[in-house]
Write a structure and sequence with these properties.
Chains A, B: Pfam families: DJ-1_PfpI. Chains A, B: This is DJ-1/PfpI family protein. The structure is a homodimer. The first copy, chain A, is an alpha/beta fold. Chain A is built from 6 helices and 11 strands. Chain A has one domain: Class I glutamine amidotransferase (GATase) domain (Rossmann fold), CATH 3.40.50. Chains A and B meet through helix 1, strand 2, strand 4, helix 4 and helix 5 of A and helix 1, strand 2, strand 4, helix 4 and helix 5 of B.
Amino acid sequence: MHVVIPLYPRFTALDAVGPYTVLAFAPGFTVTFAAERPGPVTDDRGSLTLTATASYADVPAPDVVVVPGGPGTLDVLEDEALLGWIRQAHEHTRWTTSVCSGSLLLGAAGLLEGARATTHWALLDFLGNVGAEPVAERVVEHGRIVTAAGVSAGIDMALTLLARASDATTAQSVQLAIEYDPQPPFTCGSPRTAPEGLVERALAIIT
Amino acid sequence: MHVVIPLYPRFTALDAVGPYTVLAFAPGFTVTFAAERPGPVTDDRGSLTLTATASYADVPAPDVVVVPGGPGTLDVLEDEALLGWIRQAHEHTRWTTSVCSGSLLLGAAGLLEGARATTHWALLDFLGNVGAEPVAERVVEHGRIVTAAGVSAGIDMALTLLARASDATTAQSVQLAIEYDPQPPFTCGSPRTAPEGLVERALAIIT
């Protein structure tokens, strides 16, 4: 199973590396980071650079696509090199997926018309603009399109996907291998559970 | 607050990028990836390359050190460039931390003598070899040494650390910003909760 993760400037690192780690540990999976041109791509904080080893032209027919999000999403909403690749790759994939604002790119590529989909809580309303039905859930499956909520939700999405693509025991094995037994120190990771005033502080961090 | 994450060949990507994302989003924090020499460092799957932008000599006095783990840990247990840097950086840090097998490197540097510490569940017994008291908890604080369990535990560790280094509200803001409201698809992320036979399958993945 060949997974391709496209990178673009100012992506959010965990959006890409969460699903990457899950899928790269899965037996029989290989993961390739791609960009318009191979080379270094720097994240939204400006302090982490990942290497894209393939161009989009090098990977026309992946089995799985994982589109990460990040502040840079807004700069590539009309980038036909990326959107065109997503569109044509989707003709070949078994699953086309996104994390965080990555779903806006699936939408901009025309893949979310009438689809149930999710994104980061701060952007949920924008999904309507690309024809999707926004759903405030952590992982949303709509046929072979799977979207995840913000940043860290990509880990849950990738494990869910792996259970479909392989089997539940394989996904469980990877979950145990990466010791994914989360114990967040606070109960505030969603606007539904966050104490009053926290949404404004979180928005100040991400915008 | 200056955080340095040392990279070495065959580290596990999420060990580094989980804490990185948490701390890089924190107001007033900057994070630098370092290695013996600046340049690309490739992970344990061979398919993700991160760029170290500093040498160890460039970052002698960080406020926080986060040492990631991975299969490559075993190859650097006697690497004096890395161990010597950890040892002398620890003289300056407010917190010296690790994820997964990274704690074996803290131990090899001589920092865990008599300390309560943790690591990936598969390696817990090895901590005794470096003089530590192994503790099967997700995040273990022993003075200014903070160790995390396997791979994904670095996210919980970094949020715990951030609450100490800044305040609880700041840590909560970052937790909400990265939508860390985990909903793992299975309850099997620890040997305590994993169904029978899964430990052997997970070990086959990571070894």
